[in-house]
Amino acid sequence: MIQQVNIKGMTCGGCTQMVKNAFSKIEGITDVLVTLVPPQVVLQSENTVSKEQLQSVLSRAGNYEIEEEASSKNVSGGGNCCG
Question: Beta-carbon neighbour count of residue 42 at 10 Å?
Fold first, then answer.
């Protein structure tokens, strides 16, 4: 199963690595691809992972959120891995 989610709050390569590490720890996830432009994650897993579970993992990794739809983004520092 492949899932794609847009992520709000990633501003640098450090952020992408933190998000990748966080998602890689979820049971059943077999591959994680994180891109900064566009800010999204593509997950390959054995079964669908709920958005609630993904958001829970993101919240523990930093100040990141799943965006329901693509939208214009205002990037601001603070709360992500860059401070």
Answer: 13
Question: How is the beta sheet containing 2-8 ordered, strand by strand?
Answer: 29-35, 40-45, 2-8, 65-67
Task: Tell me the C-alpha distance between 11 and 9, whole Å.
Answer: 6
**Considering the chain, what percentage of its residues have pLDDT values greater than 70?**
82
Residue 23 DSSP symbol: H
Residue 82 near residue 11, CB atoms below 8 Å:
yes
Q: Is 2-67 CATH 3.40.50.1390?
A: no
Summarize the confidence of residues 60-80 as an average pLDDT. 66
Global model pTM greater than 0.85: no
